[in-house]
Amino acid sequence: MIRLFLDFDGTIAVNDVGDEFFRTFGDFERLHAELLRGEYSVAEYYRRSAASVRDMSDTAVATFLAAQELDSGARDLITWSVREQIPTVVVSDGFDRYIEPLLEREGLRTHVDLACNTLQETEIGLLPVFPGATESCSCFCASCKRNTLLVRSAMDDVLIYVGDGRSDACAVEYCDVVFAKGILAASCTERGIPHHPYRTLTDVMMILQAKLRDGSLRARRQARLARQRAVAAE
Ligand SMILES: [Mg+2]
Ligand SMILES: [Zn+2]
């Protein structure tokens, strides 16, 4: 079975909505600089970011969300995957608080399975929860995407991955067909991971349609071996 995994921030959404979210409602500049200097983990960065959030009224969030755009090809790609019966998972190290409403706004929420972090409103303030946290991977994520892929696929499936950033770097090692832009494309090149560069999700859809027609959506030996090793180690 062919399966499609899509990153959200900077991939389905044009911008990194998570960064914009904390820039709007929290103390983004200072905390993000500290994260990039390696002062703490992504999980700790999210805990501090959530704790810095103030004045997050429903109206303010609605105004914020209204300004966020999705990739011009997002709807076409996802509705195409539904027509082709290719199960699609949005796999994000961002938060349900903005991903769910943005997918819903575009009528896409029911078409995809969603694996992401959650932001819970508690008596002591916002608390991030990371369902994909694992001790067995030390990638640049709070929720590692690797296990999301492994749990949702069989060993002989063909895994397609589309992403743009640091949080995708670990996941693509386990995927057969990779679409990458931005930092992820550079990181794939550096590590010798074959990938298709792309600009929009329309490019991705057109390449996938051609590959489906000519039968070249196939497993990648190194990716399958990596999946086998990861499953054995878990
Ligand atoms: Mg991203
Ligand atoms: Zn990882």
Task: Write a compact overview of the structure shown.
The chain is 43% helix and 17% strand.
Describe the global form: globular
Overall CATH architecture of the largest domain: 3-Layer(aba) Sandwich
Say what the CATH topology of the largest domain is: Rossmann fold
* First-to-last CA distance: 23 Å
- The averaged pLDDT comes out at 95
The hetero compounds bound to this protein are:
magnesium ion, zinc ion
Element-by-element helix/strand order: EHHHHHEHEEHEEHEHH
- Going by CATH, the homologous superfamily of the largest domain would be HAD superfamily/HAD-like
Q: If strands are numbered along the chain, what order do they take across the biggest sheet?
A: 4-3-2-1-5-6-7
What is the top-level CATH class of the largest domain?
Alpha Beta
Helix content: 40-55%
In percent terms, what proportion of residues is strand?
15-25%
- Residue stretches low in confidence (pLDDT < 50, at least 5 long) are none
Rg estimate, integer Å = 17 Å
Sheet with the most strands, sense and barrel status: 7 strands, mixed
Number of strands: 7
User: Helix- and strand-based class?
Assistant: alpha/beta
Q: What is the number of helical segments per DSSP (H or I, 4+ residues)?
A: 10
| Total number of distinct structural domains | 2
Q: Which properties best describe this structure?
A:
single chain; 234 residues; alpha/beta; Rossmann fold; seven-stranded mixed sheet; 7 strands; globular; binds magnesium ion; binds zinc ion
